[in-house]
Every structure is written in structure tokens, then in C-alpha cells.
Design goal:
Radius of gyration: 19 Å
Bound molecules: adenosine monophosphate
Number of helices: 9
Strand content: 15-25%
Helix content: 25-40%
Shape: globular
Structural class: alpha/beta
Length: about 280
């Protein structure tokens, strides 16, 4: 485990010159509390080059009510699992190492899409996320950075920032890893009691309902698909819906009811005190 920027840069430099033509480096940014979803990202990174996994719970992307203190942490178990997965470098800096002058004054802003959906519920979240991702890219200078489709808005905004700011990195996206019953893996799932765990299934079930409603009605628009999803979510009393929306994957703006083709349905809900998100592509014929 490497804790300082200086040591991390030295380790990456050594790894690069170790390869014949300079091995590519693939960064997997995480907040720790690792699960099989994270390890799918690690496996993809392995295919691309030497792997750097960062573990940093970034205070800048948490609002005072977001529960930074409650965020799950399991550093020892994470390190053991990463070692078993053959990861070359784990970068786990302290807050003081990342923000030596206190919260960063200079920030990367996510623009108007960053204020929608997750950003509407968590103001400033995506600015904080983009700022730390940009810092990590500048610290590691990887050839690739690997993200999970589970956080679809994050993937969209990071890809957008890479284009807008000409960041010299390729973004790789890994499909969402799910439990056998469909629940998307999340570090927060460990907070669910057995009843909440059953109720949480409503998110992925609702997305499946939207997909089949879309597929079964040729000419049916997104509203019918969203209605099918909403029926599943409102039928589960332990689930408090935050947002349910179908977006154009290219613009991430909500689609009109006459939209046809592929749309991404995004859902966020509270299950007890735990906030969960999920998303899937639906095809509107
Ligand atoms: P986090 O530690 O929650 O910030 O997530 C770190 C990375 O893992 C992000 O790119 C997430 O999108 C990704 N990730 C989290 N859960 C999953 C999952 N179930 N499937 C695929 N990727 C995931």
C-alpha cells in the first residue's frame, strides 16, 4: 500500500520502465469497502496493463448530510483481496495528502448535467467527484481509467470531462455486476437488514419491468415503460423513490415520450436509511 503521491509516482515510473515499451498503466478509482463489482473493474484493468487501485473516501463529494462518517470502510480486508487479485499498486492516501491546504479551492465543475438526478439530490457531489478523479489522473497519469456502469451519470460526466479538458486517458466502462437475484452490488448493501435487502430488489425489478414494457409495446413511448417501473417501486412500501427517469444516453437529458431507440433508465431510492442507485438500457421500438 502506497500512501504518498511521491511514492506512488515513483512506483508507477518504475513499473513503466520495467516493461519493454513501457507497460500501460490502468487506474481503478474506488472508495474501498470492495466487493465483486470493484473486482470486475480490477480484472478489466489487468487486461489493459499494470494496475493501480486507489482507495480514497473523498470528503469533497459528500455533503454534510451525505454520511461521510457512516461510509463503510474495510481497508485491511480490501488490501488482502487486492493482493490476492495480483494488483501491483494500491494507493490509499490520507485526506491531508490529497488536500494539504484543506478543501480544494480549484475545482472541476460538472456543468448542467451534474445538477440533475444524483446531482439534484446531492448538490456539489459531481464537482467533488470530478475534482478528485482529475487529481488522481494527474497523480497516477494512467493510460486507462476504469469505471463501473453502475454509476452511469458518473461515467457520463467523467467521459465528458476527459473530452472537454483533453485529459490524456482512455475511459473503460465495465457492466454492472449484480447478485443472482438482480440487486446491483454496492458498498452500501451491507447496511441493509434482511427485510430491506428483499425490498431493495425493487430497483432492479423495476428496471426489468421498464425493459419488458418497452419491448412488448411497439410504438409505446418511455412514459409507459417508466409507469411499469414506477408500479413496481410504489408496490414496495419500504422503498422511498427519489427519481426515476429515462435519459438519452448521448446527452443524458430526459427523453420525450416520442423518443425511440435506446434510452437509459436511472433510478434512485432510499431503502430504510440507505440510498441505492441503479440503471439499465431499455430499447423503445
Ligand atoms: P465506489 O467505491 O462506490 O466509488 O465505486 C468505485 C467504482 O466501482 C466505480 O467506478 C463504480 O461505478 C464501480 N462499481 C461499484 N459497484 C459496481 C457494480 N455493482 N458493478 C460494476 N461496477 C461497480
Amino acid at each position: 500500500m502506497i500512501q504518498t503521491i511521491r511514492d506512488l509516482r515513483a512506483a508507477v515510473r518504475t513499473a513503466r520502465v520495467g516493461g519493454t515499451s513501457g507497460s500501460p498503466v490502468a487506474l481503478v478509482p474506488t472508495m474501498g469497502a470492495l466487493h465483486d463489482g470493484h473486482f470486475a473493474l480490477v480484472r478489466r484493468a489487468r487486461e489493459l496493463g499494470d494496475v493501480v487501485v486507489s482507495i480514497f473516501v473523498n470528503p469533497l463529494q459528500f455533503s454534510p448530510t451525505d454520511g461521510l462518517d457512516r461510509y463503510p470502510r474495510s481497508l485491511d480486508a480490501d488490501l488482502a483481496a487486492l493482493a490476492a487479485a495480483g494488483v501491483e499498486h494500491v494507493f490509499a492516501p490520507s485526506i491531508a495528502e490529497m488536500y494539504p491546504s484543506g478543501a480544494a479551492e480549484t475545482r472541476v465543475t460538472a456543468g448542467h448535467i451534474g445538477a440533475l438526478y444524483e446531482g439534484a439530490s446531492r448538490p456539489g457531489h459531481f464537482d467533488g467527484m470530478l475534482t478528485v478523479v482529475t487529481k488522481l489522473l494527474n497523480i497516477v497519469r494512467p493510460d486507462y481509467a476504469v469505471f463501473g456502469q453502475k454509476d452511469a451519470q458518473q461515467v457520463f460526466l467523467v467521459s465528458r470531462a476527459v473530452r472537454d479538458l483533453n485529459l490524456p486517458v482512455s475511459i473503460e466502462v465495465v457492466p454492472t455486476v449484480r447478485e443472482d437475484d438482480g440487486l446491483a452490488l454496492s458498498s452500501r448493501n451491507r447496511f441493509l437488514d434482511p427485510g430491506q435487502r428483499r425490498a431493495a430488489l425493487a430497483l432492479s425489478t423495476a428496471l426489468a419491468a421498464a425493459a419488458s414494457a418497452a419491448a412488448s409495446t411497439v410504438g409505446g413511448g418511455p412514459d409507459a415503460a417508466l409507469a411499469a417501473a414506477r408500479a413496481v417501486l410504489t408496490g414496495e412500501p419500504a422503498v422511498r423513490l427519489d427519481y426515476l427517469v429515462a435519459v438519452d444516453p448521448h446527452t443524458f437529458l430526459p427523453v420525450d415520450d416520442d423518443y425511440r431507440g435506446e434510452a437509459r433508465v436511472l433510478v434512485a431510492a432510499l431503502v430504510g436509511p440507505t440510498r441505492l442507485i441503479d440503471n439499465e438500457i431499455i430499447t423503445l421500438p
